[in-house]
Amino acid sequence: MRNASNPIEVRGYPFFTNFLQIAYRVWTMQSVSRWLKGFFKKTEKTVETNQMEHYPSKKLLIIEGMNCGHCTMKVKAELLEAEGVQRVQIDLTKKSALVEGFTLQNQALIHAVAIAGYQVTQILGH
């Protein structure tokens, strides 16, 4: 039987009840500990990879016609398929895409955006 004040209670067996309570607390603490360790590992790894990845070529594309998250996903997917592109960051409010990679060709980027169904109005960067 369970009691509202004590979720793990077996009436008539105080030793067993205490054992269950201790086991439950240890299991809960171990689960939280494992979750926290996993969380911090992911965070550390993300920070390391962001610091390590420096691409020699960056271009800022001003794109006309993007209005929603679906639009940005289509543009990002097509840009990542273009030759030399390693990373793409889309800013919907500015209607722009920051493209990073190796030997980025303007025509390849314009073509990728056109395949997604949008138009590049301006390209900034080297």
UniProtKB/TrEMBL annotation:
<dbReference type="GO" id="GO:0005507">
    <property type="term" value="F:copper ion binding"/>
</dbReference>
<dbReference type="InterPro" id="IPR000428">
    <property type="entry name" value="Cu-bd"/>
</dbReference>
<protein>
    <submittedName>
        <fullName>Copper chaperone</fullName>
    </submittedName>
</protein>
<dbReference type="InterPro" id="IPR006121">
    <property type="entry name" value="HMA_dom"/>
</dbReference>
<dbReference type="InterPro" id="IPR017969">
    <property type="entry name" value="Heavy-metal-associated_CS"/>
</dbReference>
<keyword id="KW-0479">Metal-binding</keyword>
<dbReference type="InterPro" id="IPR036163">
    <property type="entry name" value="HMA_dom_sf"/>
</dbReference>
<dbReference type="GO" id="GO:0006825">
    <property type="term" value="P:copper ion transport"/>
</dbReference>
<feature type="domain" description="HMA">
    <location>
        <begin position="57"/>
        <end position="121"/>
    </location>
</feature>
<dbReference type="Pfam" id="PF00403">
    <property type="entry name" value="HMA"/>
</dbReference>
